[in-house]
Known about the structure:
There is one protein chain. The strands form 2 sheets. This protein has a 5-stranded mixed beta sheet with strand order 1-3-4-5-2. It is of the alpha+beta class and 195 residues long. It has 2 domains: 2-95, Roll (Archaeosine Trna-guanine Transglycosylase, Chain: A, domain 4), CATH 2.30.130; 98-192, Orthogonal Bundle (Arc Repressor Mutant, subunit A). The chain is built from 9 helices and 7 strands, in the order βαβββααβαααααββα. It has helices spanning 10-18, 61-66, 72-78, 97-103, 109-122, 129-138, 144-150, 155-167, 182-192; strands spanning 2-3, 23-28, 38-41, 44-54, 84-94, 171-173, 178-180. α6 (129-138) crosses α9 and α7 packs across α8. β3 and β4 (44-54) form a beta hairpin.
Amino acid sequence: xxxxPMLIKRSILQRLVDGSATLAFRRWRKPTVRAGGRLATELGxxxxxxxxxxxDDALSEESARQAGFESLAELQGLLRADGDLYRIRLRYVGxxxxxxxxxxxxxxxxxxxxxxxxxxxxxxHGAWVRPTLALIEGYPGRPAPDLAAELGxxxxxxxxxxxRLKALGLTESLEVGYRLSPRGGVVxxxxxxxx
Length: 195
């Protein structure tokens, strides 16, 4: 299972990818990831090898360095104040397969039809795919809450929908907002030609 519910700063991601960091710490009421799962990040896929609930004394200068921070104070400054403390063991397993997928814009008729059918299935309980792709095309880099408001949707649901499009290689996350991938541009053009 590849998911993206745990945000990690890019500087920490780089250390996880090169192996100089192997841990993350979070305070949660309930963990949002599970051991054995995987995280798709902007720099690649991370395996979640273990999640352990720990006491605050598990935080030390050494564990902060293992989590990619320069100091314990820096790590503590980013932890939420409430919730149980969890130590997550992470390992880089390879590039995100969505990256090569989103750059593959040479879809033959069969591939394009397959993507369109998946999008039609997503729209089965209310058409959101085409308006979302069109809005991202028109406003690349615009903050997600602004885009959600344009469609009269809550930001949380809008972001979840964009993650579904991203899993198909149709969108890319930017520092702020999104943009269509080359594959997304081809698919949206095909959707616009439909009645």
